[in-house]
Task: inverse folding
């Protein structure tokens, strides 16, 4: 669990290679311990890092493993994490997402947000909302309203989720082309 937490910090600080290495190590550790739900979460996270690094095949492989591992799990926390991470990763690796694909991802993320809200898992609700807006922007579809990003930023800040608040703010200033290239540029700048 510590390695996965460290992977998340590294990703936020722009160190994609370290994030990938740590999340892969976390997934293998969970595998050795036979903790399938936690392994699924680690692999879902790894799929996003790989997608951001521009490796769609490896990302898709991690998505498939993650979805397979989470089947039958009773952990709502892990199911929500995996759902959010895999929906986001799949949207990032789709070269030319159609409106139908975007709509399906947005609906899935909305459903996950509602489940998180019902379970009073506010951070996961915010994560799902942020991922939904990111999917829309990444695919060239502007969110239904600018207030969606502003509302998310405000809700996150008001409840002490400053990282999500900053991410929503940064997302609001990116165009879809910038969003597509920012992930790859950040990953490439740290591969030295």
Result:
């Amino acid at each position: 669990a510590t390695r996965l937490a460290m992977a998340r910090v590294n990703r936020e600080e722009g160190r994609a290679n370290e994030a990938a290495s740590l999340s892969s190590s976390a997934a293998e550790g969970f595998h050795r311990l036979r903790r399938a739900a936690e392994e699924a979460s680690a692999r879902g996270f790894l799929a996003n890092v790989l997608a951001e690094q521009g490796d769609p095949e490896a990302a898709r492989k991690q998505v498939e493993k993650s979805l397979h591992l989470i089947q039958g799990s009773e952990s709502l926390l892990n199911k929500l994490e995996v759902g959010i991470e895999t929906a986001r990763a799949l949207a990032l690796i789709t070269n030319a997402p159609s409106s139908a694909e975007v709509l399906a991802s947005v609906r899935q993320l909305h459903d996950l947000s509602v489940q998180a809200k019902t379970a009073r898992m506010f951070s996961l609700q915010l994560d799902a909302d942020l991922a939904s807006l990111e999917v829309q922007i990444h695919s060239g579809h502007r969110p239904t309203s600018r207030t969606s990003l502003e509302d998310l930023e405000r809700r996150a800040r008001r409840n002490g989720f400053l990282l999500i608040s900053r991410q929503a703010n940064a997302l609001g200033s990116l165009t879809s082309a910038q969003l597509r290239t920012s992930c790859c540029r950040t990953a490439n700048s740290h591969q030295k």
Notes: The mean pLDDT is 86. The radius of gyration is 16 Å. The chain has ten helices and no strands. Residues 99-118 form the longest helix (20 residues).
